[in-house]
Amino acid sequence: MERTHSYRHAGLEYRIRSAEIPARHCYVYPNRNHSGKHRRPVEYVPFELGNDLSETFDAIFYLNGYAPEHTVERLVPDGRVALVVALDENPRYVYDNHTREVSQEYRGAWISGVHSSYLTIGLPAVSTLVAAQFRIGTAHAYLHVSLDQLRDSVVDAATVVGEPMWAVRRRLKQLESPTAKLKELANWMIERRDDARLTPPAVAAAVARILESPNVATVRDILRDSGYTRKHMNTLFRRYVGTTPKSLQRIIRFAETLKSIQQSQRINWAQLSADCGYYDQSHFIKDFQDFSGFRPQQFVDLGFDRQNFFPDG
After folding, report:
1. I need a labelling partner for 285 at 20 to 30 A (CA). Which of 58, 88, 89, 172 fits?
2. pLDDT computed for residue 12 by the predictor
């Protein structure tokens, strides 16, 4: 049975609808218009991942009414591939990180590959969408392409999966309830799964080790224990993960560093950089700027509390 959880915080209203997932597992973002008044609440509905999906997806969810005051967001790398299906007709934009000129327009449905730097995206006035976030190293079995083709890219989903993408989008738009939409998307993903394209055990094990301990020594140990040459392991990672072991290690280390920063009351930068496995503080600062576009202290001063995307104008 679908439940609705509503609450107010700091003058803003939040609403979460879910069949099974308790509200404490959901995070909904505040809406304000430019006059400072709140708009209708954001509706976030997560799909309960059963055994057939939980090993390959981090989340499948419905989002309706996301209308933040800012018009541009900065999405930082986290190593995941995502499929997003817009249920509105609003265009989205990717901007050049340096010139801020529009480099790409997309709408309908798109796939975001593994990124090696932050992505600057333009937001419509309001968003309604469903999305599927793959676990790292699992999307190949569903998308049926080498994930290296998607690296540092946002691509029209139909160029990857063909006409079925538009057929499922039409069905999603016709269905009334968020739960029905999510079931439709989940069932379609299950139908697309090709076990012959599942990630090889050696690569899956290597990804798990990097996620557990994202340091340089882990990557060296992976190469040694796999019995593969560096070149062959890199080839496998590009196909099934979308980047190399070394690049994934840097991305995950950065993600862990972000968490440490956000959880710290007072930060000793030298100690933090050492604890997170950086050679020195300058190495840490360079990586942080490469992945986020922010200087570490600038990031702290801005007071962001999100995991991997932040207001940017």
Report:
1. 58
2. 36
pLDDT on residue 71: 87
- For the chain, give every domain's residue range: 9-195, 201-311
Residue for token pair 């003058």: 11
Q: If pLDDT is split at 50, 70 and 90, which confidence band does 247 have?
A: very high
Chain mean position to CA 158? 20
Per residue in 11-42, is it b (16+ CB within 10 Å) or e — as a string?
Answer: ebbbbbbbeebebeebebebbeeeeeeebebb
Quote the mean pLDDT of the chain: 87
Asked if residue 171 lies in contact with residue 184, where contact means CB atoms within 8 angstroms, the answer is yes
Q: 201-311 domain in CATH 1.10.10.60?
A: yes
What is the C-alpha separation between 156 and 216, in angstroms, rounded?
35
pLDDT digits (tens, 9 = 90+) for 113-145: 999 999 999 988 889 999 999 999 999 999 999
